[in-house]
Write a structure and sequence with these properties.
Helix content: 10-25%
Number of helices: 5
Oligomer: single chain
Number of domains: 2
Radius of gyration: 20 Å
Largest sheet: 11 strands, antiparallel
Number of strands: 16
CATH architecture of the largest domain: Sandwich
Shape: elongated
CATH topology of the largest domain: Tumour Suppressor Smad4
Bound molecules: NADP nicotinamide-adenine-dinucleotide phosphate, manganese (II) ion
């Protein structure tokens, strides 16, 4: 059954980005659900969150509701091309509404990343990422020890390191040469950003897929300013003692609909398209 609260209705939040087309779709959905007795439209405490825009919009919407992951199911409507977190395009709103009315609470869930940043003065900051988290040093080469589950693997020298979720593997991770990982694989991926490799400095070079339950630890070896990025946000830290990455015990859930588009179809649509023989 659809998750219902005391009012007996599914609570639905509609969140659109600033584009004209997104706002238009939002008001169309709003009008359709406003008088439907099975739905209650509210941005507070929703059961279903409809994100209208692109994958970037879904990232923002995810962080708005990340405290309610146990309850919320997301659905993305893309005003543009298909995308990875979006199941419907703007011309498919009628089909979306039909499926929403048939919804019985089905969901499809994907892994998230958990990170902790420990500063040199002992502060600990934790965060959750849907796409990826990275540690970079801009002003000079980042020198850092990389350990996986307690095994000291390498001393890294370069711009930084990115750790991505399976669904985030097609984002920044892919641009820096990481592998594309199917989102039903319960694992995460560490990818180097411009590592120095020569007769003196050595890193593995390839990206690494790490299973659930294991932890990646990066310990910077130089005093200075570091940039920590979590999805679409970046933070600057004076000195970072270590940053740890592991799969979260919570997942992100999406409304599972009959028209749910397969991952490889999205990969093809986004990166290959139709190629002439
Ligand atoms: P943005 O700079 O507006 O968007 C970056 C692009 O990444 C957009 O085309 C976005 O799609 C796409 N994207 C987001 N998540 C994706 C995913 N899981 N798979 C494939 N493509 C994805 O920034 P934003 O919209 O706030 O998104 C932040 C994300 O952008 C970061 O998490 C990072 O992964 C990515 N990024 C990539 C690079 C790079 O490749 N060099 C640099 C910076 C950031 P939409 O157009 O549908 O929003
Ligand atoms: Mn974007």
């Amino acid at each position: 059954m659809t998750q219902m609260n005391y009012t007996g209705k599914s609570r639905v939040a509609i969140i659109a980005n600033g584009k004209y087309q997104s706002k238009r779709i939002a008001s169309k959905i709003f009008s359709a659900l406003k008088h439907d007795p099975n739905f209650y439209l509210s941005k507070d405490n929703p059961d279903i969150v409809i994100s209208i825009g692109g994958d970037g919009m879904l990232l923002s919407v995810f962080h708005m509701y990340e405290k309610a992951l146990d309850k919320v199911r997301f659905v993305g409507i893309h005003t543009g091309h298909l995308g990875f977190y979006t199941d419907y395009r703007d011309f498919e709103v009628d089909e979306f509404l039909k499926n929403l009315r048939l919804d019985r609470g089905e969901k499809i869930s994907y892994p998230l990343l958990r990170v902790t940043v420990t500063t040199a003065d002992g502060r600990i900051v934790t965060a959750r990422a849907l796409n990826e988290a990275s540690l970079r040093r801009i002003e000079k080469t980042m020198v850092a020890d990389v350990a996986i589950n307690g095994t000291q693997l390498e001393r890294f020298r370069g711009d930084g390191i990115t750790v991505s979720t399976p669904t985030g593997s097609t984002a920044y991770n892919k641009s820096i040469g990481g592998a594309v990982l199917h989102p039903t694989v319960e694992a995460f991926q560490m990818t180097e950003i411009a590592s120095l490799n020569n007769r003196v400095y050595r890193t593995l070079g390839s990206s690494i897929i790490i299973p659930k339950g294991e932890t990646v630890t990066i310990e910077p070896k130089r005093v200075g300013s570091y940039t920590v990025s979590i999805d679409n946000k970046s933070f600057s830290y004076r000195n970072v003692a270590k940053m740890e990455f592991f799969l979260d015990d919570k997942k992100i859930s999406f409304l599972s609909t009959p028209s749910h588009i397969g991952f490889w179809e999205r990969v093809k649509d986004a990166f290959i398209g139709e190629v002439d023989e």
